[in-house]
Structures are given as C-alpha cells and as structure tokens.
Inverse folding.
C-alpha cells in the first residue's frame, strides 16, 4: 500500500511535535506546517533528526489566510502527493477578560483558531471524498467544552471547531472520510512547564488525576484516529484532560 501522508498545522509546538512523531512512528509521511514568521524551523528539523525522525517535509504559511493555506497545501502535494490526513492543530491565545478585550484580540483568535478550519479543509476534503478515504482531526480544547474566564475568544473558537467537526462529519460519513475533534486539557509542553511553580501547582491541583497530560498522549490519540482501525468513529469529541471536565 502507498504510504499515507499527513499534514499537521502548528507542527513545531509541543503538541504538534508529539503528533508528528507519533504519526511518523505509525509509518505515515509527515508534512510539518508552520507559520511563515516562525524562525526556528531549521533548528526544529535538526532536533527531530537527532531524535530519529529524519524524513519530515516542511511547508510554511498562515492558517488564517485562505490563499496562503491553498498555496501551502499545493506545495505539500507537489512534494509528497495527496494529503490523506489533515490535523488542524495550529492555534493562538489572546487572553483577557471580555470587558477589557479589544476587537483585534477577538479577531486574531477567531481567525487563526476557527477560520483556519475552512481554510485548511476546503482544498483537501473534496479530493479525500473522491478517493473514498480520509481523516480530518481537529485539535480543540477542554475550554471549548466548558468555557474559561478570560478566554471568551478562545473558548468560542474552540467550541466552533467542535460544531464544525460534527457538521462536516455528517457530510463526509458516506464518503469514507472521518472527522473528529480532540479536546486536550492541561498538557506538559515547554510553554506550560515554564509557568511559575506555584501557579503550575495550582493548575495541577484542579486536575483529578493530579498531573499534566503528556504531549505524546495527544499524539497517540491522533495516530489512532488516523488509522484504518478508527474508520467507524466520526463526529466524535474526545476529551483527554485527566478528569478535569466530563462532557
């Protein structure tokens, strides 16, 4: 069988890196997509090679811009062929209480986190449906299901991702294309681990399992959803948050 190809947005962050590694370990060709302004791509590739992951293809663009997404996907297809698996992982935060939130903070998060669903999926889902196989995996958030003070923009976007997932799953179910959403809780990425120790302890205390999630736990779930064995699961919202919130 021809090797399947996965395109992962936000590939060079903590969760994105784990997703790329788990997909690669499952025998899937990985296209690592990053923002055009990200200046550590070469360094990241060297780190991955040192860890044993040597065959990533990189593309750059802006998931909030439709034309940039189309160009990014076209570049990926020119290099490695059809995109079989799309992991929409890129996201940003602009946290602020709503009473003080500026419109540009709202727009930035909605554009990157939610409008990107349209921008990235539009060029690939029709081709997946024509081939009769495809996987769309959207990385939402626990705060998309429970909400979070100071994150009206982020919670709205992540909740929108879940609604988008359910609707698109219904449209594509008969075409052999599955669409699922993952809602991580607090994950031990480098960014989270850099939080001041007392604040981090307070966060962990809210989690019933009394620990942070591991990035590779998210990556492993993505790898499963990308597999043939996950072919009967679509439209699902999968919580992976240590018991922090039950939907």
């Amino acid at each position: 069988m021809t090797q399947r190809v996965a395109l992962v947005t936000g590939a060079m962050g903590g969760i994105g890196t784990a997703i790329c590694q788990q997909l690669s370990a499952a025998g899937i060709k990985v296209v690592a997509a990053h923002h055009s302004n990200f200046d550590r791509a070469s360094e990241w590739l060297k780190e991955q090679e040192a860890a044993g992951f040597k065959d990533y293809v990189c593309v750059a663009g802006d998931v909030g811009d439709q034309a940039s997404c189309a160009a990014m996907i076209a570049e990926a297809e020119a290099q490695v062929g059809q995109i079989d698996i799309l992991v929409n992982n890129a996201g940003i935060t602009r946290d602020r209480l709503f009473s003080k939130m500026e419109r540009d903070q709202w727009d930035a998060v909605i554009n990157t986190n939610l409008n990107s669903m349209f921008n990235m999926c539009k060029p690939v889902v029709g081709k997946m449906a024509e081939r009769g196989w495809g996987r769309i995996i959207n990385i939402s958030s626990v705060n998309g299901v429970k909400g979070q003070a100071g994150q009206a923009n982020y919670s709205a976007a992540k909740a929108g991702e879940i609604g988008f997932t359910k609707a698109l799953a219904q449209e594509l179910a008969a075409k052999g294309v599955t669409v699922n959403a993952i809602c991580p809780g607090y994950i031990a990425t480098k960014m989270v681990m850099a939080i001041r120790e007392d604040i981090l302890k307070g966060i962990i205390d809210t989690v019933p399992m009394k620990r942070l999630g591991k990035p590779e736990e998210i990556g492993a779930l993505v790898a499963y959803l990308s597999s043939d064995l996950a072919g009967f699961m679509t439209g699902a919202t999968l919580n992976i948050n240590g018991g922090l919130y039950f939907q």
